[in-house]
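Lab notebook page, bench 4
Experiment: in silico fold of construct C2
Operator: M.H.
Input chain length: 138 residues
Purpose: comparison with the prior construct
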Amino acid sequence: MLTFAITSWDGLVADDYYKRGKEINRVLVRDQYATEHGLVARLDWSVNDGRLDLNIDADDIEMRDPEISLQFLHPTRSGFDHTTLMTQGPNGHYYGVAPQLPKGDWIIQLGTNAWRLNTRTELDSAPLVIHFESLPAT
């Protein structure tokens, strides 16, 4: 049991709860911004070689940044989490390379400092098409 505890450390529990609470509010604002601007995206992911092709559609074309962060978040093992920077190509699509990730359930987050989209997907060895849609306004 000690060997398992030492070799599978997933990080510390956050000890600055006030700071984390402020971060949650900032994330909610980013989600609302994506909803207000009708943001949707499609990610074509060749899982075997890691190639990523991202197309973003928004009501406001000014939401397109030259770089977008794409995060792969494992729901139970933060040690598997990875961030990839997507760069805009001449055709308006964003391109990047994802690492080899273990098969299973993943949360995929896409965003900038102004907006964020996320979805959950089952990762296997086949090419994936992942659709991101902003949450409906409540």
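Observations: The mean pLDDT is 79. The first strand starts at residue 40 and ends at 46.
Next step: discuss at group meeting.
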